[in-house]
Amino acid sequence: MKIYTYPSPEGEQRICDTLKRGLGFTPENQRAVEAYIEDVRTRGDQALVEYTNQFDSSQVTRDTLKVSQQEIEEAKTLVDSDFSRALDRAVDQLGTFHSRQRQNSWIDTPRNGVMVGQMVNPVDAAGIYAPGAKGGKTPLVSSVLMGGIPARVAGVKSCCLMTPPMENGKINPYMLVAADRVGINAIFKAGSAWAIAALAFGTESVPKVDVIVGPGNIFVTLAKKIVSGIVGIDMIAGPSEILIIADKGANPDHIAADLLSQAEHDPMASAILVTDSMEMATRTKAALEIQVKALGRRQIAQRSIDDFGAIMKVPDIDTAIALANRLAPEHLELIVDNPFDQVGKIKNAGAVFLGPYTPEPMGDYIAGPNHVLPTAGTARFSSALGVDNFTKRTSLINYSKEAFDREAQDVMVLANIEGLGAHANSVRIRTK
């Protein structure tokens, strides 16, 4: 990983390259995903099973597409007590955090004779997507929790999970136990774009949902983008990102490990250190070069740090924070003296991790906030997945005759200016 001075032309170019990396899909990807979606929309379960057989497991049939209760009960006997303890802690802490996000319906009387308000209701049905890394052998349990828990807190009655099966046609038991623990109603053995299509349009077996959430590869992301508008989605997420602001008091071994925790996700992931200490920059670079060699996913991590990683030496922490606000990173670590003195200056970030003992993985699994976060600079205008993604707001309005008479003339003036005579007449006819 190269050390850059910032601001400088070379450092600026590196930042621009990171900002421009985008989602990384091609026109061929787009056409393929559109074809998958249309096929599932047209042929339903048959297409869903065929794609699952082709790409994941030949053992899945229409009869076994939905996970049975027997499979869930069997899974409970296969997980260990350490997992159960960790799962209980995660579910409890995530539930507590997301419960604080609930909005209440309200009614107000701001003027004599006028009542306005807002009803907040959950959507009827939600679909949670959870990737199956390495053919389902390494289950992404946290994706189930991060999608399922806020949906349940919001009050969604029907939640179903889509996740690709292992080669033997089963779902990893850890995934099943997690889904059961958070109250998922139905689990289906399908992944990728065809799973998103099934959720968006419904099939003979899969219920149509109102909202789809959860991370995935480029095919999942494209599918969510295409069906957005037919259903609600959480966000269009790009490759993972981490930006660490560190001063001379930070531990370079810790910084290197945190950078690699995101670099191992994807060759297009971005891992950037911004520091006001050249000693910290050089020591972190040396530590990173040692640590990357020991990673199981070292080839992915190495490509990430070569292509999109950087160490930026800045004149002061204020410059570092200005750069962070410009990049609007998915994950921002503040490993500086008195981080709470600096956090109020952060305007754009998916999540902020404060202090030397708050590495990003704490937020990935167990801290409480959601780990589905805006990427690619979209933290400038969007937020983490949460309860709001599973609710909708309905406005309430009521006028008495006296209040109507008092405000009717102004409504007619505005309607006529817009050339909407029928709008004006709808009011005028009540004034006679």
CATH class of the largest domain: Alpha Beta
Kindly report the spatial arrangement of strands forming the biggest sheet.
1-13-12-11-14-15
Structural class: alpha/beta
Strand content: 15-25%
InterPro entries: Ald_DH/histidinol_DH, Histidinol_DH_CS, Histidinol_DH_monofunct, Hstdl_DH
GO molecular function, one term: histidinol dehydrogenase activity
Catalytic activity: L-histidinol + 2 NAD(+) + H2O = L-histidine + 2 NADH + 3 H(+)
Pfam family, one: Histidinol_dh
List keywords for this structure.
single chain, 432 residues, alpha/beta, Rossmann fold, 3 domains, 6-stranded parallel beta sheet, 16 helices, 16 strands, 44% helix, globular, NAD, Histidinol_DH_monofunct
Outline of the structure:
This protein has 432 residues and is of the alpha/beta class. 44% of the residues lie in helices and 18% in strands.
